[in-house]
Design goal:
The complex is a heterodimer of chains A (257) and B (315). Chain A is mainly α. Chain A has one domain. Chain A contains eleven helices and no strands. The termini of chain A are far apart. In chain A, helix 4 packs parallel to helix 7 and helix 10 packs across helix 11. Helix content of chain A is 74%, strand content 0%. With 315 residues, chain B is α/β, with parallel strands linked by helices. Chain B has two domains: 231 residues, Rossmann fold; 76 residues, Alpha-L RNA-binding motif (Alpha-Beta Plaits), CATH 3.30.70. Chain B contains eleven helices and 14 strands. In chain B, the strands form three sheets. Chain B has a six-stranded mixed sheet, sandwiched between helices. Chain B has a four-stranded antiparallel sheet with strand order 2-1-4-5. In chain B, strands 12-13-11-14 form a four-stranded antiparallel sheet, with helices on one face. In chain B, a hairpin with a 2-residue loop joins strand 4 and strand 5. In chain B, helix 3 packs across helix 4, helix 3 packs parallel to helix 5 and helix 4 crosses helix 5. The model of chain B has no long low-confidence stretch (mean pLDDT 89). The chains are: A mainly alpha (257), B alpha/beta (315). The complex binds adenosine-5'-triphosphate and magnesium ion. Adenosine-5'-triphosphate binds next to strand 2 and helix 1 of chain B.
């Protein structure tokens, strides 16, 4: 049996990243679990008990999908932005560039590392949530599709950030000033139907809203936006990001001189 | 038929590094053409900043060329990068492996990137690490290796997929004399077994010892190329060091103004001979003006003379 060289290359990249993620688990897996547990405790248990149910679900049940999605977004993004930037900085990226692996395989390798970390964190955070609330799943298919697409999307975005970053500071700017605000305002903690009309309309421009709602729909069967629109938004964004990354790889910009 | 294809065929290769805030644009390669046949051991010589690393970087896929063409074993790097790249093993000038990883993992991962699964690559990894004296360090974090060991790891990594062309960018920089000779031996063996080798170096002795052909690069252009013998006989500026019995006076030096002579100290003279000069003429003149020569020796590598003269001429 011969394995295709392309698959071997891809698998080598992915294996290397997963080994790394597991080796430094206290930096890659533990922090989001700790943070999310605090959210469960404070917003779900302490404050949530004083908040009226939303669409018939307790506040805790309502925010779990959003909080999981929040960790998925950050984990996928941080993984590719840091592994890629580090590889460029210490020049181990050269090992990939001199190899006969086509660009799309290298991209797939980086993105899959981010997706792998996001999925590991998602599973851990979901397991913890069971201690706080009853987990219901309406459609496992939608849950898996939403989490995979979101992880791919933000792994690609992290890769793009890593390609443009000129310093270590530059890899924290986007997460701090763009990702975090968009996530907090992306319907993790509230249904946008509870907002004044003006803010509700503005919220519709936030792509993260669609991902959080698709994911929540998979668990609870409720969503502020049509589920089809959610998947369309994710699909379009992935195509745009992937196209940009492929094009940059092709030109070599952000990779080599 | 395949043998008519060059190992490396470079045509009118140009590279301009884009300017940025800190630097103006640099023209690193100004139209270089080079044919390297299969099985050759080729040397690229040139001062710092000549463009050697840029040339190798473009060939290996690390630097984007500005114009020109490069073919590796008949595959163009633009239209068929996958085939071009799989023939090349690159030993870069600077360490670029993951210093937190172990030599064994570094070599096995590299094999993976070339499509060789881990288990299949293991025997070959053992072979190259043993040949380069790194097998007992295979599980050591590579940042703990000595400088010379790191250089050898770069070579082991480049050989894991049995490339047909090995590009070595200053492989023996900072390696001690004994180890360097060991590496020469190893490279010679590889070359005899059929690997085409392209090497850049600042040690002219290295090029003289190893290379069947060399090119001298200066300021982004090849200024001379040929076999070591050809270059030396074509441009042999020989420098002789003469020890005199008595101190040489200023008056005597003035009388020798037709010779290319340099006084090193009171009793040491350096005599340069260009092609066509006859040693006897110089000695006769010295005898006439009363200089007694105790002994004569050759100074340094002959290739070094060629090199220094060429670079000075093109300065
Ligand atoms: N990344 C870069 N950005 C801008 N200019 C560069 C870059 N790399 C090299 N150069 C410039 O290109 C020229 C050729 O550099 P190169 O590294 O190819 O020389 P070299 O012959 O390998 O020198 P050395 O013997 O010092 O290794 C130099 O003027 C150098 O400053
Ligand atoms: Mg160099």
């Amino acid at each position: 049996m011969t394995t295709s060289p392309i698959f071997v290359g891809y698998y080598t990249m992915l294996r290397k990243d997963i080994v790394r993620i597991l080796r430094i688990w206290s930096q890659t897996l533990l922090p989001p679990v700790v943070t999310t547990t605090l959210y469960y405790l404070i917003f779900g248990a302490f404050i949530g008990s004083q908040i009226a149910p939303i669409d018939g679900f307790s506040y805790m049940q309502f925010i779990v999908p959003g909080l999981v999605m929040m960790t998925v977004i950050t984990s996928a993004y941080m993984n590719t932005v840091s592994t890629f930037y580090f590889a460029k900085w210490v020049h181990t990226l050269d090992e990939l560039l001199v190899s006969p692996m086509p660009s799309w395989v290298v991209i797939a390798g980086f993105v899959s590392g981010g997706v792998a970390r996001a999925l590991m964190v998602a599973v851990l955070v979901l397991i913890v949530s069971v201690f706080f609330t009853k987990l219901t799943i309406v459609s496992i298919g939608i849950v898996v599709a939403a989490v995979l697409l979101t992880a791919i999307l933000f792994a690609l975005a992290g890769l793009l950030n890593g390609m443009y970053a000129k310093s270590f500071d530059a890899i924290t700017i986007i997460p701090t000033f763009v990702l975090t605000p968009l996530t907090y305002l992306g319907g993790v903690f509230y249904s946008i139907d509870q907002l004044p009309e003006f803010f509700r309309i503005i919220s519709l421009a936030n792509p993260i809203l669609y991902m959080v709602n698709a994911f929540r729909f998979g668990f609870l069967g409720i969503s502020d936006v049509p589920i089809g629109v959610s998947f369309a938004v994710m699909g379009v964004l992935i195509v745009v990001l992937l196209g940009t990354v492929l094009w940059l790889f092709h030109k070599g910009s952000g990779l080599k001189n | 038929m395949e043998d008519s294809v060059s190992a490396l065929s470079i045509k009118d290769l140009k590279k301009v590094y884009a300017k940025d805030k800190k630097q103006p644009g640099t023209e690193a390669l100004k139209g270089v053409s080079l044919e390297i046949k299969k099985g050759e051991f080729f040397g690229l010589l040139g001062p710092n900043g000549a463009g050697k690393t840029s040339l190798i970087g473009i060939t290996a896929g690390l630097v984007v060329k500005t114009s020109g063409s490069v073919e590796v074993m008949g595959s163009a790097i633009d239209s068929d990068p996958v085939n071009a790249k799989k023939h090349i093993g690159l030993v870069p000038q600077e360490v670029n492996f993951d210093i937190f990883d172990t030599p064994l993992n570094i070599v096995l991962n590299q094999a993976g990137y070339y499509g060789i699964p881990r288990t299949a690559a293991l025997p070959r990894a053992e072979e190259v690490l043993k040949e380069l004296g790194l097998w007992d360090k295979k599980d050591t974090q590579s940042q703990k290796l000595s400088g010379g060991m790191k250089r050898r790891l770069l070579i082991a990594r480049a050989l894991i997929h049995e490339p047909r062309i090995l590009l070595l960018d200053e492989p023996t920089a900072g390696v001690d004399v004994e180890l360097r000779r060991g590496m020469w031996e190893y490279l010679r063996k590889l070359n005899e077994a059929g690997t085409t080798i392209v090497l850049t170096t600042h040690y002219l002795e290295e090029a003289e010892q190893l290379c069947s052909r060399i090119a001298i690069v200066n300021k982004g252009a090849i200024i001379e190329q040929g076999s070591v013998k050809e270059l030396v006989s074509k441009l042999s500026y020989v420098t002789l060091v003469l020890d005199t019995v008595e101190p040489v006076t200023a008056a005597q030096i003035a009388l020798m103004r037709d010779l290319k002579i340099k006084s090193i100290d009171e009793t040491t003279l350096e005599l340069s001979l260009k092609p066509g000069d006859v040693v006897n003429d110089a000695i006769r003149l010295m005898t006439k003006i009363g200089i007694q020569i105790a002994n004569i020796r050759n100074s340094g590598s002959r290739l070094e003379e060629v090199f220094v003269n060429l670079i000075e001429k093109n300065a």
